Amino acid sequence: MIKKTLVIATLSLFVSCSVHTKGEDVKVSEDRKNTPKEITNGILIGPAKMSDLQQEPFNEWFTSGYENYQADDDVINQIKKHIKKSTITIFMGTWCEDSQNQVPKFYKILKQLDYPLKKVTLIMMNRNKTTPGAFEEGLNITNVPTFIFYNNKKEINRIVESPVENLEQDFLTIVSGKPYKHIYAE
């Protein structure tokens, strides 16, 4: 048992928050939204809600990241002018340090915006960037977290793994329609 645990721990050191694959950008199919989440080896997988991240064992990093983040109020007020038609899909891994760092901050921004969480789809991925419901299919999810912004069900842009400037500034750039390239864009 100890040997097996050591092998798993060693292998996990070699897995990062990125896998590079190609795919077409399409919206998550509505018929897959009801696939239940599951916890496998301490990793939350499948559709989830912010409240799932506020539970053990995820609440340790989520709560501190959420409570300690304060977005720039001027930028928040600018985002409010552009966000009404947008919906957001977040792909993340509870095992991924970048997700643990960025997702709580993103939810804090949403709270400061008074943005309705019913317009946010949260998808938890395993270390291979897959889900039992294949939510990632056709969306070219190469790194987590990935925040995909939609207007009228059409992707307008995404923040991949880490923001270029900071989360709220990148958020504003995207929803205001200004040119934006995430850190992995060619």
UniProtKB/TrEMBL annotation:
The keyword Nucleotide-binding does not apply. PROSITE patterns: PROKAR_LIPOPROTEIN. Residues 1-21 form the signal peptide. CDD domains: TRX_family. This is Thioredoxin family protein. Pfam families: Thioredoxin_9 (PF14595). The keyword Signal applies. Keywords: Signal. It comes from the Bacteria.
